[in-house]
Amino acid sequence: MKGLLAxxxxxxxxxxxxxxxxxxxxxxxxxxxxxxxxxxKLQKGNFPLALGSLYPVLHEAGEQAxxxxxQYFWQDLYVAKKIHERTPQRHVDIGSRIDGFIGxxxxxxxxxxxxxxxxxxxxxxVTFIQDDATAMKQFADNTLESISTLNAAEHFGLGRYGDPxxxxxxxxxxxxxxxxxxxxxxxxxxxxxGVERLCFNAHRxxxxxxxxxxxxxxxxxxxxxxxxxxxxxxxxSIELLAQQKFGCGIFEFxx
Length: 255
What we know:
Rossmann fold; 8-stranded mixed β-sheet
């Protein structure tokens, strides 16, 4: 029953109907109305309150000061720090968030990014390569010393980003990454981990052992994780990560 309710919620969200957000907004609506009335009474000079000034944001007063409870926050911070310390001559990223992890990298280095979708804007210190990462045809064997792909592989082959439907896409991607990685190079590979399941067409959650099996040709150097409660654990065990519902595993591989 919980699974069906979660699926219904996700379907509604896909059409812009977030019931949870709607209920929270109703809860804070009286506070908003009282605040507007008080502002109207106290206003003097600039920025008068009028009907055209109303722009309700009805839930943030009940939230914490920033989105630190986020897998993206911890993984981006951790992997960017690792790349900064290692200072590779060339770093290639596949599919990570431009407005997050890539933004952090370009504060201190150049980066090549690969995505199946086009990018119609030029970003300083970024070289864009449009390619299907499951094949990595634009890269020769054993040529890349530093690669990252953070919360991207779980989407491959599901059509979410206009890519072809292919249930085997994550395995093909893993094979391509292993092929292009240089000996002694480093691959930073992050995906949702825990009890393995498919949430079509949003993402997959991988059992940690599935990831290790896909990269059998590479050596695991380190496994870190963000757990369900958003705790960051460096040197996490496979067993602990496998118990999560929707954790994030950060796998560091070498060849």
